[in-house]
C-alpha cells in the first residue's frame, strides 16, 4: 500500500471527525454575525465572531451542508480562535492558495486544515471548502470599515 493511500485515508478520517464532532458549533451572543450560502449545492453557514482589540477572541458556526463545508467550518473556527485578525486573514489566504493548487506559505502550522488539501482535485467542491473562510473574511472586512 502506498503512503498516498494511507494519507488519503487519514485525511478522510480527519474530515469525517470534524463533520461528526464539530468544534465550535453554536452561536455567540453580542458578536459579529455573518450568514452565507453556496447556492450551487445548498451549503449554508451562520458564523459568529467575537473580535476584541484586533484579535479573534471566539468563533462559532452553525449551518448545514456537506461534510466538506461543515468540517472546514469546524477547522477554521478552531484555527482562528485566539489569533490576531492579521493571522486569521493570512490563514485564509493560505487556505485559498491550497484550494487553488497554488504554492502556499508553510510558515504556519495548518494542523487539521491540511486534510482538506485533496479538495483541490475536485473543482466543484472548492466552494464547499471555502464557504466558512469567505464568511470570516467578509465579517472581518465589514468590522474594519
UniProtKB/TrEMBL annotation:
Gene3D superfamilies: 3.90.1010.10. InterPro entries: NIF_FeS_clus_asmbl_NifU_N (IPR002871). Residues 11-128 form the NIF system FeS cluster assembly NifU N-terminal domain. Pfam families: NifU_N. It comes from the Bacteria. CDD domains: IscU_like. Transmembrane segments: none annotated. This is Fe-S cluster assembly sulfur transfer protein SufU.
Amino acid at each position: 500500500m502506498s503512503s498516498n493511500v494511507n494519507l488519503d485515508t487519514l485525511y478522510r478520517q480527519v474530515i469525517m471527525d470534524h463533520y461528526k464532532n464539530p468544534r465550535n458549533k453554536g452561536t455567540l451572543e453580542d458578536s459579529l454575525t455573518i450568514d452565507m450560502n453556496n447556492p450551487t449545492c445548498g451549503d449554508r453557514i451562520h458564523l459568529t465572531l467575537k473580535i476584541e482589540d484586533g484579535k479573534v477572541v471566539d468563533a462559532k458556526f452553525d449551518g448545514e451542508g456537506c461534510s466538506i463545508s461543515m468540517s472546514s467550518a469546524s477547522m477554521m473556527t478552531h484555527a482562528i480562535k485566539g489569533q490576531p485578525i492579521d493571522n486569521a486573514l493570512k490563514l485564509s489566504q493560505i487556505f485559498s492558495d491550497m484550494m487553488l493548487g497554488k504554492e502556499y506559505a508553510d510558515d504556519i502550522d495548518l494542523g487539521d486544515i491540511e486534510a482538506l488539501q485533496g479538495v483541490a482535485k475536485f473543482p466543484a467542491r472548492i466552494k464547499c471548502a471555502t464557504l466558512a473562510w469567505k464568511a470570516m473574511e467578509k465579517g472581518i472586512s465589514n468590522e474594519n470599515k
